[in-house]
Amino acid sequence: MTGRTTSGPSVNEAPKADERRHAWAYLSAVTQGASRTVSAAIAEHGVVEVADAARKGSAGAELTAKLGPRAHLDTAAADLERLDRAGGRLITPDDEEWPAWQMLGFDQLDTATDAEGPPLALWVWGQRRLDELVERAIGIVGTRAASGYGEHVTAEITGDLAVDGWTVVSGAAFGIDAAAHRAALGVGGTTVAILACGVDRAYPAAHAKLLRGISESGLVISEYSPGTVPARYRFLARNRLIAALSGGTVVVEAGWRSGARNTAAWARRFGRPVMAVPGPVTSAASQGCHRMIREGEARLVGNARDIVEECGPLLGVDDDRDAQFVRALDGLSGDLALVYEALPATDACEPIAAAESAGVSVDRVRAALPLLEMEGLVQRDEDGWSRVAGR
């Protein structure tokens, strides 16, 4: 975008920023979720150029197949204005508060489908900075048909985490999700709700007051533009964002087949700790948790301290009560522990060799290695990946 320069750089920068934001809003509404194809085109050509090509129908066969059916629906200006009036905004990869670290996991998913990419942008309701809220965040999920036991345990764990400054991330559904949000708010803590519809829609409708409370001290988030209605596939897509924005995921109650287990599966793909709270052996609501623990998909936890021990080292948080006995490796679990132990002590190797040694897939190894590198536990050179000496 060109313009006159007689008044200095700010004359051009503001219109350019507005043009980019409108382009992000347009593509978010047209794409209706994540698309690796669209994200790759934006990375190569720029968001404004891709949006212009989509509007003109000149985006090429692959992009046109994805964007063509909705390309004529340019509601960007109205969407941005509607959200601004409600006290919300659009967060894009252009913004400083974009949670770049949390999105790294998407880059490691070699087997991901087109729709399993990172969100193009995030529509948020609330005034807090997203990057600050998710710096120390725990996802807490579970069944909608929660028992009294499940709601009690959720309140106890969530309340303790929130008091200690952890952000609680969940999906605003009935049952465990709602119990987690309410417990965090009840102790004056911070919580983030991720929706499978536009943030201007209260879903479920009974949670309209709860969502407003969340927006006042935390954030309500969606990758879908305002006005988008809930759909089953959007709930499954929503689960990956709960896992991505959390340093670890806790399942409190889950049936044998459960959406909460889908969220946990995403956390494992990202290389994040997965934890499950056991319940009575007679409770159908806890069978999914028991199965995850039994099959090694989750670590058993019973309180907030157990969760911090699992997730704290990954996020740079120490438990001061046991600090003198804790090493950097003590908090590793799941794929992180398996991959670290699979690396040679005095040599380097490639991910495929580490996968064979650890007994996990190559894509899970590739997801774990950058997280271990950020913790200063491993390093990469021309020979491959190796442990950092002295850790």
Could you characterize what this model shows?
- This protein is of the alpha/beta class.
- It has three domains: 6-74, no CATH class; 123-315, Rossmann fold, CATH 3.40.50.450; 327-387, Arc Repressor Mutant, subunit A, CATH 1.10.10.
- The chain contains 17 helices and eleven strands.
- The chain has helices spanning 10-31, 36-45, 47-56, 61-67, 76-85, 100-103, 130-133, 148-163, 176-186, 208-217, 232-244, 259-269, 287-294, 304-315, 334-342, 351-358, 362-374; strands at residues 88-91, 122-125, 137-141, 167-170, 191-194, 219-222, 249-251, 274-276, 299-300, 378-381, 384-387.
- It has a nine-stranded mixed β-sheet with strand order 1-2-6-5-4-3-7-8-9, with helices on both faces. A two-stranded antiparallel ribbon has the order 10-11.
- Helix 9 (176-186) packs across helix 10, helix 11 packs across helix 12 and helix 15 packs across helix 17 (362-374).
- It is globular and about 55 Å long.
- Mean pLDDT is 89; it is low at 1-11 and 321-327.
- Belongs to the DprA/Smf family.
